Amino acid sequence: MDSKVSKNVKLFLFGFAGLLITALVLVVGVSAYRVYHAAASDRFTVTVAKALRFPAFKVGDKTVLYSDYVEDLAAIHVMRDFDKNNGGQGASLTEEQMSDQVLWRLANNVLIKQAALQNKVTVEDKDIEAIKSQVLQQFKTTAEAETELKRRYGWDMDTYDKKVIRPYVLQNKLSEAIGTNNQAREMMRAKAQVVLDEIKKGADFATEAKKYGSDGTKENGGDLGWFGRGDMVPQFEEAAFALKKGELSPELVETSYGYHIIKLVDTRTEKTKDEKGKSVDTPQVRASHILFPFPTLTTYLDEIVNKANFHLYLNVHNPFAELKKQKAAAASSTNQ
Fold first, then answer.
1. DSSP code of 260?
2. Is residue 222 helix, strand or coil?
3. pLDDT single digits (tens) 159-182
4. Of 43, 221, 250, 295, which sees the most CB atoms within 10 A?
5. With a threshold of 0.90, does the pTM exceed it?
């Protein structure tokens, strides 16, 4: 009798365990479907996704969770509704645009953290408190600040700290570290010197500008058009006006933007009026340049983004797809 009871209990337990496993598999399956096919944001789906750490996408080997995507998407919806009621810039954002912004913001946070680690940049509590104090100074009380954050983003101060203040501080400190990196500046100077030497040996300036230029003039062979004194930063202006028509700057010209290779294309004199309204002859020059910019966070991140691999798992618009096309086009151009 005892053995029969024991056997029945075992069968019951095994059966119950089987039901639990079946139910769990069903819950996981339904949740996964709702996440990866519908990008659902209901509480049940998000709770399961958060518990099981469902990924939304990967940047390299770093995973961004679906729960983080949903949380930020909810916040940007609140922000859009706030802007609609208050005539803000985000009032016209579409669902696709909001999703794209969230995906890029989360990806940017991953890249910033990786770059900060590589550059040994850290955030200290005093840095956070300084920014938080600036935010709170705009309100009479902390409670008033919390209320405003709820209205604008649906967040409390702790969430705002985590999602906005800390990434902001880290990005600023990283930007400062990159901008003052003397080794990176020297590497850029060496690169610019090589190109200057090639042009001195006979390489075509316009061709080199299209190849190495970093600003909007590169597609026009570096052509800056006509300009007079006071139109450019002093170092650039002094170097350009010291050249003769058709002459190349013998040395690299350093400005606050970086290192320039300058070629004077032409000169002319125009009639203008001075402060007293008297007509005077004003010299102008037309120059071309190739800019090798000082390292900035933007250029640094552009390089990282171009090298990174993005893998989106969600059935939403993929803002990273265009980047893949650009990489493929660049690789094809290089091979040719």
1. E
2. coil
3. 999 999 999 999 999 999 998 888
4. 295
5. no
